[in-house]
Amino acid sequence: QVQLVESGGGLVKAGGSLRLSCAASGSIFSMNAMGWYRQAPGRQRELVAKMPNGDSTLYADSVKGRFTISRDNANYTMYLQMNSLKPEDTAVYYCNMLILPTTPRTLRVYWGQGTQVTVSS
To answer: At residue 53, does pLDDT exceed 90?
Structure first.
């Protein structure tokens, strides 16, 4: 049983900061690509940031310079540090990981349950 549990969302004023966490649990052989997505009301889910391989990172243009994606391999946890938040950042944020479980040893995409981030002006 592998699952992702998100935390860290909340209500913050514009210009403030939040750090989202996504902890994977279960029988995990390895963590591979991972990313953060968000979905605002009436909008399509969009990629915010990802680590496709190694320590490389990619960011959506809208969050470059403000958000930072990172991971803690020892604790099977990924983070999204969000600074200088704007009202347009308001959305439900979802973490995503490509995980190779110990059993069965087959790559699978896992999603977190989502955490609400609300930025007031």
So the answer is: no
